[in-house]
Amino acid sequence: MTDISAHCGLRERKKARTRAAIREHALRLFRAQGYAATTVEQIAAAAEVSPSTFFRYYPTKEDVVLRDDFDDRMLEAFQRQPPSLSPVAALRAGIREALASLTQAEWAEFQEMTALGMAIPEVRARMMDELTRTINTVADALARRLGRSPDDLAVRVYAGAVFGALMAVMGPETYSEGRIDPAVFDRADQALAMLESGLPL
């Protein structure tokens, strides 16, 4: 059993390294020659993988910008929060913990990808599909925490309300010259606190 677990762990680490390498080389090429001029084939060649391998990790070129490890870290931290916390309080704690776990290099990459996502029209268009996927992922995490079905209407509405609150304070004006205004995370936390308190006006 231990050998099987070790093998699975090694395989997951290898996948994570490949995913990170593809993203790293994609961002380097985007900086050097621009997003539009960079092809999937160029990214795959730089990362020393085949185009088919690229698509196993990222369904589209836009997904290289939109998909990172932050959501996974945040959801893992969310699940670790004590049961005594409400779902929103646990989510706020999970976000804070995930942000605190970022290294300086990871923070710089996070900022760069977020700025690209706001600046490139085709990436912004893809964001809507990604948002739906992320809401589904958060609904699954909420359902596990609450012992309910991910298809429960209340769970899905709750997950949607969370992202509605976040989107209200994280518009294009919060990004400038490839940088995120750090205050946006304080505003996001305040938005979730308002949601937790019933959105008083």
Q: Class of the largest domain, according to the CATH hierarchy? A: Mainly Alpha
Helix content: over 70%
Order of helices and strands: HHHHHHHHHEEH
Total beta strands:
2
Question: Largest beta sheet, briefly?
Answer: 2 strands, antiparallel
- Look up the CATH topology of the largest domain: Tetracycline Repressor, domain 2
Strands of the widest sheet, in order across it, are: 1-2
Derived structural class: mainly alpha
Distance between the termini: 56 Å
Uncertain segments of ≥5 residues (pLDDT<50)? none
Mean of the pLDDT scores? 88
Q: What is the total number of structural domains?
A: 2
Account of the protein in words:
This protein is mainly alpha-helical and 201 residues long. It has two domains: 1-58, Arc Repressor Mutant, subunit A (Orthogonal Bundle); 61-201, Orthogonal Bundle (Tetracycline Repressor, domain 2). 76% of the residues lie in helices and 2% in strands. The chain has helices spanning 2-33, 40-47, 51-57, 61-66, 70-80, 87-101, 104-119, 121-146, 153-169, 183-196; strands at 175-176, 179-180. A two-stranded antiparallel ribbon has the order 1-2. A hairpin with a 2-residue loop joins strand 1 and strand 2. Helix 1 packs across helix 2 (40-47), helix 5 runs parallel beside helix 8 and helix 8 (121-146) packs across helix 9 (153-169). 21% of the residues are buried.
Task: Please outline the helices and strands.
Blueprint: H1 2-33, H2 40-47, H3 51-57, H4 61-66, H5 70-80, H6 87-101, H7 104-119, H8 121-146, H9 153-169, E1 175-176, E2 179-180, H10 183-196
Antiparallel strand pairs: 1-2
Helix pairs in contact: 1-2, 5-6, 5-8, 7-8, 8-9, 9-10
